[in-house]
Specification:
Structural class: mainly alpha
Strand order of the largest sheet: 1-2
Largest sheet: 2 strands, antiparallel
Number of helices: 11
Radius of gyration: 21 Å
Shape: globular
Length: 221
């Protein structure tokens, strides 16, 4: 007896897409209003001459609620969308198995590469705090709807397609695609490590100088 039907996300996909979009739009609207009436930090708000631009790009940099203990942008960028991505992929893989009685190697490759990114994201989550999304982008429709609706629907397109159009690759093709994907991710991770090491050094220099140390004497960590 199944406690939880693993295909439920895939089978209710149309309804979920509608919910994602409604939630993303409402989330952006609520925090657009909050930014005007109850800003967390007035100094980090950004206004333009266009309310449409402000709604899309965001007003507050890091809106917080619940007595400022919950960072709404950090939560939505790193939790519902990324975790949902994994659950959606797994559900469509389960749907393929339920419909056809097997899981294709193309579906397995898709999930391996996606889970590699997702697992690495959470393993190096500190790195994400220094990305443009968190450090510079304000929380508006772009990030609210993007994390709530765009990410879970668009990043899972491959699994959605393969669940209903199974494709079994030749072993050599499967190996080449998997190797190319892992190699590409290794390059991505290496370049991000270099950037993060450089960024992290400057952040350490800044706080070292703020504490009264000589910027030039900052230890390289």
């Amino acid at each position: 007896m199944e406690v939880i039907d693993p295909t439920i996300i895939a089978r209710k996909w149309g309804t979920l897409i509608a919910i994602f979009n409604i939630y993303g739009i409402l989330l952006a609207a609520v925090f657009y209003i909050k930014a005007h009436l109850y800003p967390t930090h007035e100094g980090d708000r950004r206004f333009s001459s266009s309310p449409f631009y402000d709604f899309y790009m965001g007003v507050e940099l890091n809106p917080r609620i619940f007595n400022q203990h919950w960072d709404v942008k950090l939560f939505h960028n790193g939790r519902p969308g990324i975790i949902g991505w994994a659950l959606i992929d797994l559900s469509f893989m389960a749907l393929q198995y339920r419909n056809y009685g097997f899981v294709t190697n193309s579906m397995i490759i898709t999930l391996v590469l996606h889970m590699l990114y997702i697992g690495d994201f959470f393993h190096h989550e500190e790195w994400y705090l220094r990305t443009i999304d968190i450090a510079h982008d304000h929380f508006g429709f772009y990030l609210a709807w993007g994390s709530a609706a765009f990410l879970p629907t668009m990043y899972t397109l491959q699994a959605q397609y393969l669940a209903r159009s199974p494709l079994e690759l030749e072993p050599i093709s499967a190996a080449l695609i998997l190797g190319l994907g892992i190699g590409g991710y290794a390059i991505f991770r290496s370049s991000n490590n270099q950037k993060d090491n450089r960024t992290g050094r400057h952040i350490k220099q800044f706080f070292y100088a703020q504490d009264g140390g000589d910027f030039r004497d900052t230890p390289i960590i």
